[in-house]
Amino acid sequence: MDTLINKRIKQVLKGDQNAYSDIVNSYQQSLYHVCYRILGNQQEAEDIAQEAFVRAYINLHTFDPKRKFSTWLYRIATNLCIDRLRKKKPDYYLDADVPGTEGLDLYSQIPADERLPEEEVERMELKERIHYEISRLPEKYRTVVILKYIEELPLQEISDILEIPLGTVKTRVHRGREALRKQLGDV
Amino acid sequence: MDACPKNIVTYMHAHLDGDISATEEKELRSHLNTCGACQKHMSELEYVVHTLESLPAIAVPMGFSERVMLRLPKPKVKSSIQRWLRRHPMLVAVAIFAILMSGPLMSGYNSSSEFSVTDYPGLIVKDGSVVVPENETIKGDIIVKNGSLEVKGKVDGDITVVNGKYMASAANVTGQVKEVDETFEWLWYSIKDCVTGIFSSK
């Protein structure tokens, strides 16, 4: 797969834009899925995953072909996701009016991030429930848990993607698992 | 769980990551066999892992890659030109030199292949020939390109004829009369004209 991808990258760099669609087709599923799990909703996931592919295209000349392309691509996508999460992070009262938007409070702006009533959580299907619990994880645990368990990436690769030491990745995976254990045991 | 070894939870996670030594594994096993609380903890963690791993993949929305392709910028032609330029710096230098050198010369000469004349109200212009009629006095310089000039009256200024013939019957010209032929002379004339222009304007 990597030799094929490297061939396509060379073609794109020579000006053959159509060769890029092979690259998109090869990674769209995993990239979209990661974005979906990190961001929690499909609309933002599509937006950010597309943005990641566009940025990768624009910066393709900076990619080092000796490295793994998927690692580089995941890095772009996770950085974009984290930026997006930080932008919408609610650190004020949710029912306060948003300045400049009459009658809109923050509840209407934040999707699945806030806590749902317990009865509603109890009614959820398991896969819905775990998706919801992932979205409640702090962002740094959420990212590693998703890369490890949903993308099934080796810890070393996660460390390369997020540019954090391997030991930190391990700690975050542990804490993420513990947090999920507690959350799932809560209800 | 107070009596449990301090790092037993660490071992649990190491076990889950497949990152545990044989002795640690043994220690973990024997402890789990005797401690119900830790057993519960371990099985809850395994449940978390299992649920995470069983999460179904979400299908990419239809037309995703097409939409990505549409969002790509289109600098294709430009970038290939840029790459070419970067690869052949000498050729670029030579080409730029050639263009700069030939530009003014060619344009000056080409435009001079058409007939033109400095326009004054008294001049008679007909089929590439210009006549200053008798009884007429032109005040100013006359330049004729690719045509003949015949002076029957008076000219109060210089006369320049490029690629053409100058005829004067009465020769009533107060200034200089110049006839210029061919490219080189035209170029030389242009340069001289330009230089004198600079100095006279000061």
From TrEMBL, chain A:
Record domain RNA polymerase sigma factor 70 region 4 type: where: 128-180
Name of the featured protein: RNA polymerase sigma factor
PROSITE patterns: SIGMA70_ECF
Species whose genome carries this gene: Kurthia zopfii
GO terms under biological process: DNA-templated transcription initiation; response to stress
Protein family according to the UniProt entry: Belongs to the sigma-70 factor family. ECF subfamily.
Keyword Glycoprotein recorded: no
GO MF terms held by the record: DNA binding; sigma factor activity
Domain RNA polymerase sigma-70 region: 24-89
Keywords: DNA-binding, Sigma factor, Transcription, Transcription regulation
TrEMBL record, chain B:
InterPro entries: Anti_sigma_zinc_sf (IPR041916), Znf_put (IPR027383)
Transmembrane domains' residue ranges: 90-109
Key words, A-Z: Membrane, Transmembrane, Transmembrane helix
Domain Putative zinc-finger: 7-39
Domain of life (superkingdom): Bacteria
Protein family: Belongs to the zinc-associated anti-sigma factor (ZAS) superfamily. Anti-sigma-W factor family.
Protein's name in the database: Anti-sigma-W factor RsiW
Originating species: Kurthia zopfii
Gene name for this UniProt entry: rsiW
